[in-house]
Model the fold of this input.
Amino acid sequence: MNIAVLSGKGGTGKTTVSTNLAFILGISYVDCDVEEPNGFIFLNPAIDKREEVYVEVPEIDQQKCSLCGACTKICQFNALAKAGQEIVVFEKLCHGCGACKLVCKYDAITYGKRVIGKIEKGYSKGIRCERGILDVGEPMAVPVIKSLLGGLPPERHIIDCPPGTSCNVVTALRYADAAILVTEPSEFSLHDLKLAIELVKQYEIPYGVVINKDDGMENRITSFCKQDNIPLLGVIPYSKDAAILYSNGIMLCGDKQQSKYISEIGKNIKEVFGWT
Amino acid sequence: MKIVISAMGKEKESILDRRFGRCEYFQIFDTETSEFKVVTNKAVNANGGAGIAAANQVIDEGANVLITGNLGPNAYELIEKAGIDAYSCASVPVHQAIEMYQNNQLENIKAAGRAHHGMHH
Done:
């Protein structure tokens, strides 16, 4: 079972909820926010395995190429262009779809490999930790996310998702069996939460909401959840203590008071997600 | 010789567009036949690689000279490889840009500008 943790709005506490939940439930933590993975700052695992992530890119055999330009016309991403006596490949725009090879009548296109990121694996505090890292300057995160999540063993995992509702989150949700939406009682957060819920609904998986920086009152999030019948999985109250722990890279679980809130969320997700 | 100018409109009085990949039109002048043609830049709404697609189109039109504002890294590479002389010009009417070119008043583009520069205008 893969439990995706997402939010819509960035900075609501996905990583805080993910790392602490994984630890308290004793299940693996997977950071697929590959553009800025930060869960390992808190878990600090000893890395025992590193794998490179490749994408395929066309290579043009200039001997065989007739400069007909069919490949440049079929490419939907403008990754190929004809200039002078040469077909130029813009590797970072290539999505590896294979169309150029299909249309080449001269068998001048083969595919080579290009490294765009890596996956790191290790253990921390008795739990398995994995993360994907997209190399700086690379525009496409999806291949790294697919490689990371596609390679997970069939166990229980907490999947720390990227923010937003982009292709990166869409890809991560394909591997999810349940979703936790982390939000905070601000208008911005509610706005993006609604977008994230719309997305999650497409997957027909159980989901619920966690309110971080909760004010302990009836707020825009609690009334929205009530009105739309969305299960509230728990809260992390707004507190200076939590902020101090966080900014020192210490997990909330390490604090007696704070860990109660995480345990409560853990208990509720088992119930709501039918975890047996 | 064919001169291609990135432009905001279809008339000779239209203003030169300093964005290359995201300009609306390319105005094409053939100095030998005095023929004048306007084509829409097919890349104007491209999701990505607009500079590349625009450069492809300019190359396909058989341009010898390109007058625009800036060229991003990808477009610059193609225009240079295709042997097209690129010149940088201010936002002036297209006919004036051509006059300036013919009077050697324009500067050659010898390096690529920033990537995605034209997306934010």
Notes: Chain A touches chain B at residues 72, 77-79, 81-84, 86, 88, 90, 93 (CB under 8 Å). The two ends of chain A are 11 Å apart (CA to CA). The first helix of chain A runs from residue 14 to 25.
